Amino acid sequence: MAGPRLGLRLRLPGVRLFAPSLASPSRPLLPLLHRAYATAVSLPSSSSSAAHAPPPTTPSTAPARPPSLRVNRSNPRVYPRRKAFSHAHLSLLVSSSPLILLLTHSALPAAFLAKFRRDVARAVNPPLRGSPRLLEDEPGTWPGRKPDAKLHVIRGSILGAVLREQAPQMYSVHEALKGPMAALAYPVLDPPVLAALLRAVDRASAQLRAADLPTGKKHRPTMQLVGALVGGQVMYDPQLRETSRLPRLDTLRAQIVGLLSAPAAQISGVLEQARGGRHVRLLDSYAKGGEEGQKEA
């Protein structure tokens, strides 16, 4: 008569053995893997589980903060050597140039860039009549020479970081700073010079569109004006063209002085008439004319 069937669970490192019955040695021990516990754990009742259950987590109802443009001045960002040099260069360029044209370009050959720099120099300082040389060749011998416009190949991401730190009112232009960028900077805000630079950019863009596709190239070289930083403001093509039609700053200052002085002259004339000076002079002339007539009689 067989004895009672007993179940025994043995725990070994990594393996748990289960013996269905010690009284039947003919049945081998079966190894059961992937079980790390030795005995069954009794589940708590509903009352005890409710007492010891962690509080339910609720999603946060606080509104998400919008992205901030604040800069930690006490702990500025540390750039690698090349990016630090570009950051310092663009910081100086933004602070010293009130007129910066932002250009996007692609696949421009070196010969075209050299020619475009010469065209920009001729647009700002045209050669004298009868002389093929530029004014920048001998700056000390040419009177009335203007400052030079410089073309800088820049990185749009670093320029956006500089504007975010130094000029937040112009940071909105960072949306147009995509791809290879160049900056055409001029150290003076002069509308006629702005018109000359725009003509040079339009002429260069038209030449690139009309040129044949270079051999071995899949894409045509391009250059396009995407915006400008003018006097601490961001301007785009239509507003930039209107600004270029304004006269020189000296002419504008003279017009403003004339407008301010004209009411003063009119007021002085009204006051002169109010004092009766004109009427007094008219009566004096009549009196003198009557006296002369009496003497003749």
Strand content: 5-15%
Name of the CATH superfamily of the domain at 81-137 and 144-246: Ribosomal protein L10, N-terminal RNA-binding domain
Mean pLDDT: 75
Number of E strands: 8
CATH class category of the domain at 81-137 and 144-246? Alpha Beta
* Sheet of most strands: 5 strands, antiparallel
- What's the shape? elongated
State the CATH architecture of the domain at 81-137 and 144-246.
2-Layer Sandwich
Given as residue ranges, the uncertain stretches (5+ residues, pLDDT < 50) are: 15-23, 32-41, 65-69
What is the CATH topology assignment of the domain at 81-137 and 144-246? Alpha-Beta Plaits
Helical stretch tally: 8
N to C succession of SSEs: EEEHHEHEHEHEEHHH
Quaternary structure annotation: single chain
Distance between the amino and carboxyl termini: 180 Å
Give the strand order of the largest sheet, numbering strands 1, 2, ... along the chain.
5-6-4-7-8
Q: Which class do the helix and strand fractions yield?
A: alpha+beta
Helix content bin? 40-55%
